[in-house]
Amino acid sequence: MGIRVAVAGASGYAGGELLRLLAGHPEFDLVAATAHSQAGTHVTAVHPQLAGLDLTLGVTDAAGLSDADLVFLALPHGQSAAVAAQLPPEVKIVDLGADFRLKDGALWGKYYGGEHAGTWTYGLPELPGQRELIKGSTRVANTGCYAATITLALAPLIASGLADPADVVVVASSGTSGAGRSAKVNLLASEVMGDLSPYKVGAHQHVPEIKQATGATALSMTPVLAPMPRGILATVTARFAGDGDPRQVLLDAYAEEPFLHVLPAGQWPHTAATSGSNSCHLQATVDVDSGRIIVVSALDNLGKGASGQAVQCANLMFGLPETMGLSVFGVAP
Amino acid sequence: MGIRVAVAGASGYAGGELLRLLAGHPEFDLVAATAHSQAGTHVTAVHPQLAGLDLTLGVTDAAGLSDADLVFLALPHGQSAAVAAQLPPEVKIVDLGADFRLKDGALWGKYYGGEHAGTWTYGLPELPGQRELIKGSTRVANTGCYAATITLALAPLIASGLADPADVVVVASSGTSGAGRSAKVNLLASEVMGDLSPYKVGAHQHVPEIKQATGATALSMTPVLAPMPRGILATVTARFAGDGDPRQVLLDAYAEEPFLHVLPAGQWPHTAATSGSNSCHLQATVDVDSGRIIVVSALDNLGKGASGQAVQCANLMFGLPETMGLSVFGVAP
Amino acid sequence: MGIRVAVAGASGYAGGELLRLLAGHPEFDLVAATAHSQAGTHVTAVHPQLAGLDLTLGVTDAAGLSDADLVFLALPHGQSAAVAAQLPPEVKIVDLGADFRLKDGALWGKYYGGEHAGTWTYGLPELPGQRELIKGSTRVANTGCYAATITLALAPLIASGLADPADVVVVASSGTSGAGRSAKVNLLASEVMGDLSPYKVGAHQHVPEIKQATGATALSMTPVLAPMPRGILATVTARFAGDGDPRQVLLDAYAEEPFLHVLPAGQWPHTAATSGSNSCHLQATVDVDSGRIIVVSALDNLGKGASGQAVQCANLMFGLPETMGLSVFGVAP
Amino acid sequence: MGIRVAVAGASGYAGGELLRLLAGHPEFDLVAATAHSQAGTHVTAVHPQLAGLDLTLGVTDAAGLSDADLVFLALPHGQSAAVAAQLPPEVKIVDLGADFRLKDGALWGKYYGGEHAGTWTYGLPELPGQRELIKGSTRVANTGCYAATITLALAPLIASGLADPADVVVVASSGTSGAGRSAKVNLLASEVMGDLSPYKVGAHQHVPEIKQATGATALSMTPVLAPMPRGILATVTARFAGDGDPRQVLLDAYAEEPFLHVLPAGQWPHTAATSGSNSCHLQATVDVDSGRIIVVSALDNLGKGASGQAVQCANLMFGLPETMGLSVFGVAP
């Protein structure tokens, strides 16, 4: 008998990816999946890619979730705290929402609105010391998808002194699943295919999360919606403030990491290579002409950017091998 | 120590998918991967999605392959026979090419040109009796991607007498990876995105393979190249010649099949739900107005249409659980 | 001073394409564009591709439209009759909806529901005799997008006796703009990209329209949603019932048509080549093996399939050159 | 009898777009189109979107081009000089290649290799004073596609003192037609769909052209290949060095420009809205948190980024209305 697992908010894209990963996980037994408006529906009507999985979506409440040893919350931002409050303290929780990521309540209010619910252990195992914190936690706040992509690129370079934390410019493009499964005209295939569109320019809610995780003090971020279902490509540039090779810094920082791949010199990350995996691909160089470091990172926003990362954290929380049930390799082309 | 496996023709799309599946297979140990022009190259330079796999591509010859217990041939049509001839009889082989699929040498000559190399056990386990044949074979000819999609939809309906084998019309659309990894102008992204283009109208080389596998005697097939990297959607219609429910026929035929999913009534297959998996989704109805059965099947041309199917056959050939190392669930969205 | 033109239902995709065409038309002066929920909005907030056009959307009522010499109705099915009834008889109308296409009220009820509003002149100038009827009409019912694509492929072949009207099988794939600009989950980019999905299998509402226009008596149609914003590709097969060359029949039928292009033998139509144009590309062959004619036609569902066709009809209704304001050439790649 | 026009290099994407624009131009008569390997081919075999245009591609030499009053050169970089040298001085030439754009021959050598051919009038009419220079020129060097997109965003802000010319960071994504019609594996649809991939990071050949045109002194540029056939989206950030509203600066600079649209505040450019047009959409803001101006510009790389721009220049060179034969409006969705 394995570890009993439930997913709240299973009808969205992150929820569906969680179900896929959990259905193939050797130790986690999926015992419940809940959804708001889709409660009572068979999971394959909502996620046809899971044909063969016999499961009916339940209601998101304490009764439906408390029977689990581990609960993943894949709810809209602002809804996790109420559900978490109903669960017994011994039930371990990974929250894929933003509710418990920020330490600064004022920043929460500014970017998300409403009252700050609190701060949980930040679920990015590859940050220094963070893996041990996650292992000892019963409550983990999973990273934002952009935040994971950018933090993995930036944190070691600021820590090493090579990148000026006060001069960081990011342009990051995301596939559409990052915008969620909500029926909005601007997310229609007709609008998105053949199109690149920036949004929340200079005002994205992941900026304070990235600053908190990397130590950056001034960071300009332009998010762009790209015509592909999955993937984030972040181009992170910072003033070259030190002396050294940024690629070597990444290599040293991530030498032992199973999911982080600093590519051979000259080979740049691209999103399709990470699709369906829990990997993040990285490359860095110094643009001598402009005096800036350029780092590019790519990952699957539903993998290492959300659900894969959440399973990785859960593996740590239960003392399982960190890579269990996750794929290092992308599904391409 | 597991079963030693080699892949010949590892630089193409089917080859890359084989490597991905084998790298995650519990019993198959990937010991060699060969390629023609890319020999000497690290596999991740050719398949960046496999970052983390330490393997250098070798030369496709007997020396590079004979050390294996199992060899997958993912070579251009017409090249398998020469390589197979160099391998000892105790090395088991699954050929993903067309060389050994047809029983009729004249049809081979008509559709592929050149001399017919012979006929191996046809690698579609879900055909009646075929699973046992594959288990007892050391040489298996994997299905064509269109052939698998269409045969799975059509064979039980002809066998049941519901579909008239002399009146079959198929329109099937494929993602671009089905056309291989060759640098041709008509396969450029600029040409394909936003476009649907028919090709080999009434003249596709899978037609004789489908007839052989299903018993169809007259079959019109129009293949269409679709703007997506993976997936085949086949719309198969046949004159309704009998009495009964075609969906029930499919349900009965495939009740025990782990990878074949006849969807709930009213829900139609779509390709994205099968992406990255070894599943095939099916649905059927009778179009009363026109007196025709309409069956739609969807699968991943690199999964159940090629590399996944090949691993499924290999599992059978080695007495392993048929689903080992394969996913029932698609990666979507 | 040109002809005064208004567009009702200007916020949808067909409406936007009408505005684009009318803004460049030498004789039609766009005086009003109306929309339901978007009334009061500047047109460029709804259609950013029209930046440079200074126009505010008005309310769809008699006051807003009666001042025009010509009104295009691009409303949801079932809403045209009420608006048309409020317009003076001397105002010419082209209805892009389905309301007035069918002669048989019972079929209307079966496929669309509700009461049949009546029958107007069918707006497909390339049908024999139809051009003259359109010239003399003040009320024209524009074709459905699938109907136009399939009818242009099929009508001459049935008329010539080459195609058996009782044995027609069609599989037709459409870009997403054909499904309209409504915020539905199944039309989200995340769901559509990388996907082909059939819908309304054997039950599409354009079937009676095609039968009426072509004389087909039994026709199986499977529509498929394709991952591209524009374009329809129809594969039309029919039992080869006569003696002759179907390509030559099309060539003879359309020799003088400016927008219909029967391609050189061996070259098949593809959708991207018609994008943004009012052209339809055609090719035909006999599949000897199956005894069927295969005709493929491609057009832009918003061009010759909707708005371009409507402008073509309007040109005829006002005695203008039929090609005025329309492009024969596609925007590709 | 109009102005006689020839296109050299008509088989590529920019060449095809030139033919489309010229076929609809009221004053330019297309008398010849040449191509290297495709000479002798009917144009519709190479550009199916031009079905209806009766033209056979000729050989690119003086004999084939000298008969024209105006020649567009759409040749690979480095090949224009040899062809131009063969044309009489009274034949006006617009070169879409890079050969004559740079003033500094050393920079030409560094970025393109080979000998510098010279410097022609730079074909960006919206730069201060440039329109008059183009009117008086017989030789014009059309802009690079990235260069046009970025220069239009950046030049007025540097000129106004708001943007620090020594601190510019650009990330710009292009559709695949920008990479040309060459059969390369990395441009295959299978590789590109669902993918974003950076290339020539910090080393793109348009950087010196942008610096020359804008006065920027240090500029970091990361180009990204995006999964769409057309369009460039440039995110241009620069240290906010002055006092004022960057959007107002753009509004003032481009108030009279027919093809440049500074969008309403809060509305950001996206590429699809410019597809098929000669327009460029712009928006700007100050990211207070990071102290940087963010400007986003979007255009069609084959329109305002190449062929449309070339026709605009040619209109000026012949004293025609600048917008003749060009569309302000995009084809969307």
From TrEMBL, chains A, B, C, D:
Keywords for this protein: Amino-acid biosynthesis, Arginine biosynthesis, Cytoplasm, NADP, Oxidoreductase
Record flagged with keyword Amino-acid biosynthesis: yes
The protein in question is named: N-acetyl-gamma-glutamyl-phosphate reductase
The record's function comment reads: Catalyzes the NADPH-dependent reduction of N-acetyl-5-glutamyl phosphate to yield N-acetyl-L-glutamate 5-semialdehyde.
User: Which InterPro entries does this UniProt record tie to the protein?
Assistant: AGPR, AGPR_dimerisation_dom, AGPR_type-1, NAD(P)-bd_dom_sf, Semialdehyde_DH_NAD-bd
- Describe the family membership recorded for this protein in Swiss-Prot or TrEMBL: Belongs to the NAGSA dehydrogenase family. Type 1 subfamily.
Q: Which Pfam families would you find in this protein's record?
A: Semialdhyde_dh, Semialdhyde_dhC_1
PANTHER family for this protein: N-ACETYL-GAMMA-GLUTAMYL-PHOSPHATE REDUCTASE, CHLOROPLASTIC-RELATED, N-ACETYL-GAMMA-GLUTAMYL-PHOSPHATE REDUCTASE, CHLOROPLASTIC-RELATED-RELATED
Q: Which stretches are transmembrane?
A: none
| Localization (cell) | Cytoplasm
Q: Which organism is it from?
A: Paractinoplanes durhamensis
